[in-house]
Records
---
Amino acid sequence: MKVPKDKEMYCKKCKKHTKHKLKEFKSGKGRSTAHGNVRHEKNTGHGYMGKYKFIATVKKQNKTPAFVAECAVCKAKVPYSLNKRMKKVVQE
């Protein structure tokens, strides 16, 4: 789906409608000490390393894209998301 690079939105800091730049949200690097990773390593990193049995869940193919909207005036950043599931996002 095509998404514009700029959008006129309400800025809470400026208290008026201003132009916002939309950037696609990218998550940071995962923590190696997080509970899920520690648990996974505990189950797979000892013995003869047999297959770790887990409950298989089917992943959904599409996700709702998340954006970060940055105000052009005061540079305040606000999370912004489209409430539609889509495979691909193209910014124009």
---
Amino acid sequence: MTIKTLAAAVALTLAPAIAFAAGCNYGKQEVTMSCAQGTVYDSATKSCVATTT
């Protein structure tokens, strides 16, 4: 095997590992929940509920 072929094989072999190490955040964005005045976000029901004071 020539050096060029060996280098190409190594580069193609390591490409997925390098891409994975860079981090893939597809679909992992955080969404901020905002509720109307007088309500708070309840994580158990995943909805806004009225506050009781």
---
Amino acid sequence: MSEGEQPVEHPITSELDLHTFRPAEISSLLPEYFRVCRERGLLRVRVIHGKGTGTLREGVHRLLDQMPEVVSGYRLGDETSGGWGATWVTLRPEAD
């Protein structure tokens, strides 16, 4: 964030549309977003990365592969939930 820019509030839901973020923000955004989702009991999240060239999707999947809070892997959407332009992620519940 450059000087003078204010953070943009983004509602935390079970859907995260990455179209509003720069690719460089994704590596810090996903862990933080998932942390808050887990705190709120949102354990199934649809990440919308778009179809495009697949670069963003591949980057998202690389991050997901490294995140211990992601369980049961993840899968691309089906014909009703975004197809290969979205990924469903299952999160591990927060430890008590």
---
Amino acid sequence: MSAEEHYLNAIEALESGDRETALKEAKSATKIDPEHVDAWQVYSDAALMADGDSVSLIDVSRSFSALKKVVELEPSRIDMWVRGGRLLADELGLLVEALQWWQDVRHHAPHEVTPLIEQATILADMGMYEEARKRLETIINENMDVATTQYGRIHQLLGMVKTAATQDPNEHFKPWEKRHSGWNAIESKMKKPPISETFIFMMTTVPILFAVILLSNTIAGQGWGAFCLTSVVIFATVLFGMRIAKNLFRSVNRPAFNLLRAMNFEASSGFSVIPENIRTSVLCMYIMQRKPKAWQERMIKIIDENNKIPKNWKMSLPDFDSHLDELGFIDGDEELEEETAEVFWEEGDQELDSSEE
């Protein structure tokens, strides 16, 4: 059988929900033709079919290996780049690797907004708000086109970064620091699961809504005007209550967010930093159970290995400007006015030579 025939069989098996056959046929197609991009994608798709169960670490690894071949053969496949970034960050917890992955996307799609948003999200989750701000500013500085569906996420990230900018940087929880005050806050809340935003809304806003409804006839009277006034008051109360609930949710559950950051740090770095009493707490188990299966399996391996963080360890981040060299960014030897650099863009097949400092 030819590679194309195996590929078609894999497609048929995938559509019918036969995961094992799809994997087998797609693998056969890639063995015959290692550059069969569609067969590699089918293999990646089939590896993530879990038949109702959570995707395991082995399945995620298979899918990621296959999609790496896809983007290697066709770097323009943004959908596969996006899947790879999500697998690295969400399923495996490899945040630093995910940052580099999205930076690799910028080499092939420098005008795409998604890599910058994803990088800003990861950096904010890691507590590196200044770097996250720079990623968001790049979107504005380079005048990138932002999809309507992305405005909300960017607005949320900007709000988080602005809030962090008003705080003392020493207050930002750093899991790799054993004596950081954030550990004490976690220990004080580790015996209970986090409080949901819905519960906070119900406790703070619903009593006020009942009072508004009960007193509406007495204060506003009856009639169409009174009905409209009461509706406006209820609507305003709900909006105000949602905002208050969101702020309280972040404040009350800060120890839980700090612990989540510590767990993400462990998953990303491979170092164990969480004390044993916190690791076996209700709060830690609550967060752990809500992580993907592949993430949990990686975390168990890290816990078993129990590698301690080395002294003088520092976070290593990707070079976020690495794509500029390929785009024609030139640092000339001559002095430029206002010490600004020039950016040259390739037009058509014309190649531009760049000089290094």
